[in-house]
Design a protein that fits this description.
By secondary structure, the protein is α+β, with helices and mostly antiparallel strands. The protein is built from nine helices and six strands.
Length: 212
């Protein structure tokens, strides 16, 4: 029996979270229980309109993430997403899509996160758009989640608010200074890992987890 579990705090518009996805996927494949909680970092007051200065900053940061993680940031993403005049940096719709995917099984949140990240950073789709996200989920075999996303029933909206509230509470309580953040729970005690462990080797990450 697994002696510990993990909670992963993320935002779908966080480039560092995209960079950390391969490590989270390895943990899941190893049978480690990982619950994903969105923090809503780039929703509401955290959202903004893209401009040239922010786009340049984001691209520079993305190149660093690519070097550390091996995750690809395409030229199409730079041209069609970052440098698209008037585009929004708002993770509200993408967070709602991930919540919809995981309503019946929380493990599907990671599948949806991975799909959304690839759509933005590689395919260069607008993941701030509900119709784009619904079509994306449907094309990836998540038709029920796609339909729910378009209808936005109160059940989904309430679940989304609750997940973000849980994520924000854990974020504040453990003193996280950003996302991605991985929290290990063992014997009822929670410990926040140093985020750098998500960008080293898998063996090093496991050593940090076991020492938590």
């Amino acid at each position: 029996m697994q002696e510990y579990s993990a909670t992963y705090l993320f935002d779908p518009l966080c480039g560092w979270c995209y960079g950390a996805s391969p490590m989270i996927e390895r943990l899941l494949h190893a049978g480690i229980e990982v619950q994903l909680l969105p923090t809503g970092l780039f929703t509401g007051a955290g959202a903004r309109e893209m401009d040239a200065s922010f786009a340049a900053y984001a691209w520079s940061n993305d190149q660093r993430i690519e070097r550390l993680s091996g995750q690809s940031f395409s030229e199409a993403y730079r041209l069609k997403v970052l440098n698209k005049s008037g585009s929004l940096f708002d993770s509200g719709a993408a967070t709602l899509a991930i919540t919809a995917a995981g309503l019946s099984d929380h493990r599907k949140r990671f599948d949806a996160l991975r799909i959304v990240q690839h759509a933005r950073y590689v395919t260069a789709l607008d993941i701030t758009s509900i119709p784009v996200l619904a079509a994306l989920l449907s094309s990836e075999g998540l038709g029920e989640a796609a339909a729910m996303l378009e209808e936005a029933p109160i059940e989904l909206l309430n679940a989304n608010r609750q997940l973000m509230s849980q994520g924000q509470d854990l974020f504040r309580r453990l003193g996280a200074n950003g996302v991605p953040a991985l929290v290990i729970e063992r014997n009822g005690r929670q410990r926040l890992l140093d985020a750098s462990a998500l960008f080293s080797s898998y063996d090093n990450l496991m050593a940090h987890i076991k020492a938590a």
